[in-house]
Amino acid sequence: MKMLMAIVQPKDASKVQAALAKAKIGATKLQSTGGFLREGNTTFMIVVDDDRVDQTLAIIKENAKTREQFVAPSAYIDNAANAVPMNVQVGGATVFVLPVDQFIHF
Amino acid sequence: MKMLMAIVQPKDASKVQAALAKAKIGATKLQSTGGFLREGNTTFMIVVDDDRVDQTLAIIKENAKTREQFVAPSAYIDNAANAVPMNVQVGGATVFVLPVDQFIHF
Amino acid sequence: MKMLMAIVQPKDASKVQAALAKAKIGATKLQSTGGFLREGNTTFMIVVDDDRVDQTLAIIKENAKTREQFVAPSAYIDNAANAVPMNVQVGGATVFVLPVDQFIHF
Ligand code: NI
Ligand code: NI
Ligand code: NI
């Protein structure tokens, strides 16, 4: 049994949560703020059997991985008349896998 | 030394916290929201010596375990005139026990 | 690789965060409230390579350790005319070091 602490961008959090729920993987969302790399973030605490770690990582990757996205100039500059859409990096997930000794449900 | 991550229902959180404090077991409450099993919840981060894990689990069980409770019909339906009290499950705690390498206090 | 859960006083949190960032040590701040020892607190979740654990602990100690501080009487009593400044303990950090099996970045 492993605990995964998965830190994702807020914009990807609901997609990740829905995909985990669909796979019947329980995830508790901890309210978290900034690492020094990014201001806002969402931390999921997930516990799964060892043989589901890879599936869980695949779900997180699928829904939160770093990717490029076109952003309309109006989104990042005021005088956007002659500007072209910009390709920016969004998303990105950091996952720590910790050993779990015991799981108890009362 | 072990870290216990204990996820309980919000309605049981203050009872759990008071009982742990009475037993001089330190608990930090992390603000958390929903697993897919339940919308609101409270996560306690507890660290204890190995020989106090069982006592800590007993306290959590005593104060947060799943149990049945009668709910007045007015609480769950609008037109409750002919309804009878309903037996519903409340509470429930999930606890993960993790190994701790080191504990430091400055 | 180790995960450090560091619980510090809110008044020391921004100093700790800035010092960790300066050392390029990523820290995610979890919103937390009270252990029974103290009402407010801040929990940092930090993951570092084994050979940086000591440096991380030193930074936390430097910025959040228990120390004495003079407090003006007006801060703790109403009728402070004849009172003298009081030496009080402030700060204090509790750090748990947990083993990490795996670190993944997508
Ligand atoms: Ni990244
Ligand atoms: Ni349950
Ligand atoms: Ni202390």
From TrEMBL, chains A, B, C:
Signal peptide: none annotated. This is Nitrogen regulatory protein P-II. SUPFAM superfamilies: GlnB-like (SSF54913). SMART domains: P-II. One of its GO terms (biological process) is regulation of nitrogen utilization. One of its GO terms (molecular function) is enzyme regulator activity.
